[in-house]
UniProtKB/TrEMBL annotation:
This is Macrolide export ATP-binding/permease protein MacB. The keyword Methyltransferase does not apply. Residues 300-429 form the ABC3 transporter permease C-terminal domain. GO terms for molecular function: ATP binding; hydrolase activity; transmembrane transporter activity. It is found in: Cell membrane. One of its GO terms (cellular component) is plasma membrane. Its EC number is 3.6.3.-. It is a multi-pass membrane protein. The chain crosses the membrane at residues 20-41, 293-318, 345-371, 397-419. Belongs to the ABC-4 integral membrane protein family. Keywords: ATP-binding, Cell membrane, Hydrolase, Membrane, Nucleotide-binding, Transmembrane, Transmembrane helix. It comes from Stieleria neptunia. It holds the Pfam family MacB_PCD.
């Protein structure tokens, strides 16, 4: 132990002779180590946000969505019929015993009017279970219930209520939607929007919604929607019964089997591809795989930075060996063994890489505060220069990245220090003493 301490002290003393050169050599390792931790932290932050969005959909849920099929070039349909139907909904419930709860919805973009104020909002026909499924909370008033079937009542989302009733309580007020008038019975609390999940689910904005009973939607709005195309009396329409059905199973183990049964059942009654079955659990697995691949890529990129730093260390140590040739010859003449010379130069190399690695870890652990400070500065100078995701991104330090970067930095020092150390140790003592 005493010998190791003496070698360590000698290594520090030798490095301090050339402070600037030693600092620049350690800088490459410092940058590489910090880069590993920072890149992985950013990747983990992005991955965490994506996984949270998927988890909000429910790991035990199966989402059946209506999608508009691709029209053939020869098609000239004035009214197109497609999507999930109420018959599909009843068929699924009667044939799939593993389903515990089910929530159908129909949604449509409509213009809302109150005392001269107008806004476009999403009118959603839903059932009472929709509140809990989407983690919505009531701010005032109440949610729709079974007794509201076919009644002209509406629950406004927070953003919709603020736009239509900026200075007054909306509860009990009347809202005109096209030719129908609805009475406001409730208002939901603000809820963050959900981002798009790959190509499977679109982004979901909850601030500009309005909720009415599903049967009221069917009775007042209907399934057939006509829209004007161009000038004159040219209209094009579509018949869609349900926009989405969310199914929840009793056990997460039943998700894949249930989704397969539902998809097969729908394919038996649909001649065109006008629906999609989305399984959040599968999306979560895909997100995990993507995250792993992304982290491997980031570590490889950052590892290259450490490799470059290691080459710099090797170059510095080779120069050091040349400069200290006479010192090596004197030590060998005084009885120092080759292993002693190797230990000395390896110790110096490890001190360089170890110090650079430790400083890099410290800087890496400050990733969050530094990132937030830089984001605030850039946002103050030019708010539009940063993508929207940057404002919500929070770096998440991964312990494995800290340990890995430190391990790699020491490994780089060991690998790139062996050749200079061996070159010094196997130098001829006589030739070394002659060196000027």
């Amino acid at each position: 132990m005493g010998k190791f301490t003496q070698t360590l002290k000698l290594g520090f003393k030798s490095l301090m002779v050339q402070k600037l050169r030693s600092a620049l050599a350690a800088l490459g390792i410092f940058i590489g180590t910090t880069t590993v931790i920072w890149l992985v932290a950013m990747g983990e932050g992005v991955s965490y946000d994506a996984q949270q969005q998927i988890l909000q959909l429910g790991a035990k849920n199966i989402i059946v969505r209506t999608i508009e099929p691709r029209s053939s070039e020869d098609a000239d349909e004035r009214v197109k019929t497609y999507g999930v139907t109420r018959a599909d909904y009843r068929r699924i419930l009667s044939n799939v015993p593993t389903i515990e709860t089910s929530v159908p919805i129909r949604e449509l973009r409509r213009e809302f009017m109150v005392k001269g104020r107008r806004m476009d909002a999403k009118l959603i026909g839903c059932t009472p279970e929709h509140l809990e499924l989407n983690r919505l909370e009531i701010a005032r008033g109440r949610w729709i219930n079974e007794r509201d079937d076919r009644e002209n009542v509406v629950v406004l989302a927070d953003g919709t209520a603020r736009r239509l009733f900026p200075q007054e309580d909306p509860i009990g007020q009347k809202v005109r939607v096209e030719s129908d008038v609805y009475r406001v019975i409730g208002q939901t609390k603000p809820r963050e929007a959900s981002a798009a999940v790959g190509g499977s689910l679109d982004a979901r904005e909850y601030s500009s919604d309005a909720y009415i009973p599903l049967k009221t939607f069917q009775h007042r709005v209907g399934d057939q929607i006509m829209t004007r195309t161009g000038e004159g009396f040219n209209f094009k329409g579509e018949i869609v019964e349900l926009t989405q059905i969310t199914l929840s199973v009793r056990d997460i183990q039943d998700v894949d089997v249930t989704a397969s049964i539902v998809k097969h059942l729908l394919e038996s009654y649909h001649e065109q591809e006008d629906f999609a079955v989305v399984v959040p659990k599968e999306l979560l697995r895909q997100a995990e795989r993507t995250r792993t691949m992304f982290n491997v890529l980031l570590v490889v990129i950052a590892g290259i930075s450490l490799l470059v730093g290691g080459i710099g260390i090797m170059n510095i140590m080779l120069a050091t060996v040349t400069e200290r040739t006479r010192e090596i010859g004197i030590r060998r003449a005084l009885g120092a063994r080759r292993i002693d010379i190797i230990q000395q130069f390896l110790t110096e190399t490890l001190v360089l890489t170890g110090s650079g690695g430790l400083l890099g870890v410290l800087c890496g652990l400050l990733c969050g505060p530094i990132f937030r400070s830089l984001r605030s500065i850039v946002a103050t100078v030019s708010p539009d220069i940063l993508p929207e995701i940057v404002y919500t991104l929070e770096p998440r330090i991964a312990l494995w990245s800290v340990l890995l970067s430190l391990f790699i930095s020491l490994g780089v020092g060991l690998i790139f220090g062996v050749y200079p150390a061996r070159r010094a140790a196997y130098m001829s003592p006589i030739e070394a003493l002659r060196h000027e």
